[in-house]
Structure formats: structure tokens, C-alpha cells
Structures
1.
Amino acid sequence: MTATKNTILGIVILAVGCLTILAFVYRADLQLIWLTIRLNPKHAFGDAPPPTPPDYTDTAHWAALPDRKDPADSTPRGAVDLQTAAAADVFFIHPTTFLSRDAWNQSLDDEATNRMTDQIVMLGQASVFNGCCRVYAPRYRQATLAAFYATGDNGRQPLDLAFQDVVTAFRYYIAHFNEGRPFILASHSQGSRHADLLVRQEIIQTDLMHQLIAAYLVGFPLDANNGLAVCDSATQTGCQVTWNTVGPDADDLFVSPTNICVNPLTWRADTTRAVHAANLGAVNLVSDNTHEIGVADAQCLDGRLYVSEIRSNRYGARPLGRDNYHVFDYALFYVNIRQNAEARVDTFLRQRN
């Protein structure tokens, strides 16, 4: 009996040890599962009225405007904010920053969410375009993260509501701010889901195609069905780029050979690997304003952008799972994106003149 008890105890200890190791190895994946469960609102979408719609005549309903001091004006060391003299604009649609189970869509007076949008996204993503363009970034009643994992109306309707705000903001931008200037459409994650639809419904086969420099629809699985050509060179205009950054041990999120992947180190839509030396600088402005050369390599495979190794300790967060670098889609290639946006604007202006 003692031997049997010892055997059972040994099996239990071994099992606990294995589970502990697995929990450590897959802690980022488990964190994502926990996060999505924790953020699922307790009520159905239709059981509560939506938040008050935005009023885009109110500057408080914009996260970034070129004539106002805001985090999108920030620059890495050695760069300059050139919005005052810029000949082009960028309309930037921010990713999900609403992490709440209280509602399916953000209320625009939610100060904590707005602060996250400003101090993380405007600072670390939208700012990449202030060397080429005046930055316009609307706030909108974004869907909470759980909407992407929900089924039925709880998944579709919060995203549809958010998209309608984006359409309203874009039309307001065109009517009141743009004045016929060329523009870049840029976005990340949830914002790129909306931007993809915006291209299809508001830009393709309209006069705005003559003003569109390029679309940077980063961090969402997209095919080319919005009608916009896929960029295949660093100075091509009237086209779109996107990528989803992962490491070698990432799960199969966003894996599909039909997904667009344009390498932000080569600006080609092929499977050629760009080595670390091609990376002109990763920038994590949330941390500080320095940039590090050669932090990440990049290769497009199976519709995703693979990084073999990140050579920095500033990019450790993995909220979407093990080896998923989603939150650093812009930061890991910041200087390359900044220089590329400037090059595309210059090319567009020369061609137009």
C-alpha cells in the first residue's frame, strides 16, 4: 500500500510539475485566453443603449490634430515633427484600447481609454507619420476586445457601430480638413479592419483615389479584396501595405496564404528575408525616444511577417500570445516606416506635378 501511495504521489508531483512548466512556457497564450474571458461584457449588445455618437466638430473627439499639441507630435531622437510644413495628410485609425467588460463599445468620455489611446498609440504609432504628413486621428466608439471573439450580434454589431463612426470621421475630415490635399490612410489592428472597409466603400472608384498616396493597414489579416493594389516597391503609390509580426513559435493566429504581407524592411510582397542590418531603427517611444538599429529581421511567409530574433529587451510584451509581436507592428520597424512614408509622399508629389 505504501508503495502504491508513493507511486500515486510521484505521479501527482510529476503532473503538477509538467503543468507548471507548460503554464510557464505557454503563459502568454493562457494570458490571452484569460484576458478575453475577463473582458467579455456581462450583457448582450442589444440589452444596453450604445454610447453617445461622436461630434467631430468637437476637437476633444480627435486623438490627434496637426494644429494642436498632442502625443502624435512626438519624434525619436534626431527626427523632426514637420506637420506645419507638410504637403500631405495622414488619416490614422487607432487599434483597440478599450479593455472593459462594462460595454461593447467605448464611450468617448472614457478618460482612461482615451489616455491609453493617446499615450500609447498616438505616441508610438501615429507619430511615425509626422515627418511627412499632418496627422488626423479620430476617436471613435471602438469595439471592446471581446467583440473579436464573440459570435452573432455580440461580435458583428459592436464592430459595425465602430466602423460607422470611422466613416463619419473620414467624411468630416475630407469635407472640413483635407482641402484637396494628398493623404495617407494608416491604421493598426481594429483600426485596419475598419480602414479596409473604408477603402472599399469610400475611396475605391471615387475621386479620392487621385489623392490617396498609400494605405498602411497594419496588424489585421487582410486580403486584396478591397480593390486596392498591393505595394511591391518602396515608392509605389496608390497601393496598400500590411503585415502581422510574429516569432517562430507563434500560434496560427492570422495564418493564411491569402493574407497580404508586405515586408517593411524591403517593401516587397515576396518571401525574401531581410536581415537585421536592413532594420534602420526600432523605436519604443512609450519607453524613451532612442532608436536601436538592427533589432529585428523580417520575412513574409504564409501571410504573416516572421521575425527570427528580437535583439533588444524593450519589446517583451506578448498580450496576444507566445511569440506574437502584434503590439510592436509599428515599433519594431519605426524608422523604416517613417522614411518610407516620406519617400512615397515625395514620389506622389513629383508625379502629380
2.
Amino acid sequence: MPSVTEHYESHLAPIYVWMAGGIDAALARGRAEVEAACPRPSSVQWAVDLGAGFGMHAIPLADIGYSVLAIDSSGMLLDVIRTHACAKPILTVQDDLLSFKSHLTAPAALILCMGDTLTHLTDRQSVERLITEVAEMLVHGGSFIVTFRDYSTPLVGPSRFIPVRSDSNRILTCFLEYEDETVTVHDILHERADSEWRLRVSAYRKLRLSPDWVIRALVARGFLVVREQGPAGMVRLVATHPL
């Protein structure tokens, strides 16, 4: 089975902006999320966007005054940030998100792990390591904001088929298969080429993380945590590093 990086680079990255409804619509949603959840910087401060993708949150963060470290494993998606960021203070880095510490020159005031990025880590030990390193690299009083899907309760039957997006030339559907600790996501892509439809399928594993488990892991590392309703049915946790 492909790794997360392999799956994105060969299957999802080329259509990711399309999946999100186009760059303008995606940035508008990102701005709304940033406005709803992220504190504005009182001075020039670092924000880190873990799994930044094409800049849905990194670009709005720069717009409100942060210097942004945008880290992602996909060079193709980071190229979209470079195209649309213009002269905004965004440093794009192609690397594993667990390596973010090596690219920071000073503690950050804000660290984001948005979308469903947290579940892309390989195991719970990696999630705990990430939380530990986030705690180490935040200024006192800084915030770690994470959104993810709660896969702890399996979907059954036809509800495991999830339509993502479609238009006259492309249809993307997900199918979920549940294991004890993970869920396998099959991305089923139909694309029209001339008068024919062509099928491409790829799959990768996500972690089944319950919100309660993530909250316990955050609290164990000293965070004060508020649970909120995130976008598109996701859970949003706002974790504050105590003063």
C-alpha cells in the first residue's frame, strides 16, 4: 500500500486544489477558519502550518501579520503556495511534518495542524511525539490548533462510500475500510479523457484517533484544551501553552 506521501504525490496532489473547490473558494474558507480560531499576532511572530498543502491557512495567516513556516511533504502543493503568496512572509519547506523543529529559528506563537493531517501520522507514538515537540517549540501562552476527523466509530454499509466532488469531467469518491487502529481510505477517481472515462484508484491508511485520546495526550503535556466544532464535520481542538 502506498505511504501517505506517495498517495498524495501520485494521486491526490494533482487534483487537490480542484478537490477543495478551486483556489479562491479554498482560501476564503481558510480565512474564515483563521478568523474564527487563530489569535492575531501582537508583533511579528512565527506561525507554523503543519501539512500546509497549497496554503489554505498559510496565506491567510501571513495576511494577518504572521511570518509563516509552511511545511508539507508535497512539492507540487508547495509550488501552489509560492505561486499565490507573492511577497508574503511564507517560508515553504518540503519535509516530514515531524521535522518542523529543525526549520524554526525561534519559538512559534501559533502552530496549526489543520484539515485531517494529524491522522496521516503512522501511529499514536508519532502523534505523542508531535505534541511533545509542539509544546517545546511554542512560546508561553502560544496556541496549538488541530482539526481532524473522528474515525473512532466505524461507518457501516453504504455510508462508507463518501462523495468528495464531481463535475462534468471528474468524479472523486472515497471508500473506507476499518481496521483496529487505522482506516484505509480508497480514493476512487474517474476522469474523462476525450469521450472515455478512465478509472484510477489508490489507497492509504489514516489513524483512528478519538478526540478524548488526543485531548488526554495534550493535557499530559501541559496544554489547556478547548474542544470546538470544526469545519466539514471535523473536531477542532484549541490547545494553549500555559503562561
3.
Amino acid sequence: MKLIKFGIIGTGKMAATMMTALSSAAGVSVLAVASESEQRAQSFANAFGIPQACTGLASLLSNDEIDAVYVANATENHAKTVISALKAGKAVLCEKPIGISAAENQEIEQEAARSGKLCMEAMWTFCLPSFQRFFYVHDSKELGVASHFYADFGYPVGQDTLLKSYSSGLRGGVLLDRAVYPISLAIRLFGNVKTVIGQVDRNQDNVDVHAAFQLIHQSGQQSQLAVSLTALLQNRAVLSASGGTVSLEPPLLGAELVNIAKAALPSQPVSDMPINAKPGLTKKLRGLALLRRLNSVRKFLGYEHHSYGSNQYLPVINHFCNLYRQDKLVSDIFPLSASTQVLEVIDKLKNL
């Protein structure tokens, strides 16, 4: 197995989280970490046993031993950092969102094509076994033709977190931080979006904190989505088809439970069914609360469990490394073009 030597750009929470996955990935070595702060770079390097701590981006990118970089600096700096890394001849795995607008992402696509280097947004959820099962049910038409998709992702954060982690400037709020997840799912299932309808709520600092919206896809299929920084949502995704539903059960982002519910269609037209004033056995049994409760437990035991193993981020690391070792430039799970489509929807939401 070819050893892939990584550099880490950024020293925040997500960089630390991904370091745990990188440390457990086979055939991966982290050679350097970069930060604008010399102290933060050195502290991060000491914490994770990284040989080189770099102050600034240039020092890391000039290291010819580094094959690939993981970008996890400030959101508003993602695009320019990714482009700089591609120009330096590095493969790139970038934390979401890879850009803050569709225009930025189109520049990334162009540079990736020019440089001939692998570039991918780290949409880690798509690599989880549960999501792969969810996509298979849709793609194989196991439940027939799908027409409707619902997903939400949200939980409240404190005022301190809002002030520290979000701003009314380029970094944005719930749209760039959380909406990318359900939107990317909707586009993966139903394709390009024609119309965006909905409402975006903003706080006194003009930070988008809650959004509920509907996507009308060019295919005619529809997606109803919601994201929030102020309310606890279901954190669930449901795909509805002619033969039933398939759902990713909470928590959506780290889902391991998949529920497939097949539609119980009547064997004859309702108009032809006999009228019976007396309740049959089935209706009598439904009248017993204990049996209804046991039936609910039985249904829960029928859920499919698809484990991601010891670390939920390891599948996306393995996917990226496999692409790199096979000299592939585009992910077949989440290509750069999908990132652009997601940001096109977010651009429209920003104007609501």
C-alpha cells in the first residue's frame, strides 16, 4: 500500500477531530501542520506528534514530501487555500463547505482540472455504510420510483457559540454550516434544482439561524428541508417512493439505523371491498394497547444497523486515499460538481 503523506492546514476543532481518523487510517502519515499562529501550530504538532509545525501556508505547501493536504482553516479561507494547494501540486481534501459561493467553487473546479490533482470536499456522511444503503435503495428502485424527500438537521446552540463561531460576514450561519448536508442529499437523489421556495430567519446580528425550504428539482421531484441553530429538529431523512419509504434515523449525520417500510397496498379496489359493520379480528387486536406496543417494538427490531466502525470520519479518509492511490481525480461518491450544485442552492437561499 502506497504511503500517503498529509499536511494539515488549520488547528481548530475539526482539524483535531480529523487527526484522530488520519492517525488510524492505514498507509497514512501526517508530516506537517500549518497555522497563521506559530504557537497554535506548535501546540497542535506537539499534541498529535506531527514532525513539522509551519507558520503560514507557504511553508507547508513548499514541502515536496507532502502528497495531500486536509484543509480545515476558517470557512471564508477554504477556496483560496484549496486553489493555492492545487497550484502547489497537492491533492486536496477540504472541510465543508469547500467554498462560500458557487462562483468560488467553479474556480476550484477549473484549477483542479488544470492542475490534474485530486480535489474533494469532505462530505463524510456520504461515505457512511448507512448512507450507501440509503442511496442503493433509491438507485435500485427497490421501493419503486421516489417522488418526495424530507430531511432536517438542527439543534440549538448557546449565544456564546453563536458569537464565537458564526458571523454576519463571509463565514455565515446555518446555511453554510448545516444546510449543505440535507441539500447535498436532495441533489444526490433528485438532481439539479430548478426552484427554491422558503424562509430564512436571521438574528439581530444578521446571522442566518433557521431555514425551512422546498426544492423543486428539474426532474419534477420535490425535497422539503429544514436546518436550525435555534431549535431541536428531528435530525432524520425520509425518502418516499411508490412502494414505501426508506429513512436514515437520528442522529442524521452519524446515522447507523436505516428503516425500510414497505407500503401495504389493498389487494382490491376500495370501492369493491365488502362493507362489514362488525369489526374483524385485526381491528379487534388493534384495539388492545399492549399488542400495539409490542408491535412497535417488533418494528424497531426490524431496523437495519449499518455500523461505521470505530470512527465516523475514517470512511471518507479511506475513500479519498483509495482515489489517490488509483490516480483518480474525481470522487464517484461526491464530485466537485456536486459541491457547486449545493452552493448554487445556498446562493439562492441567501437572497430569501
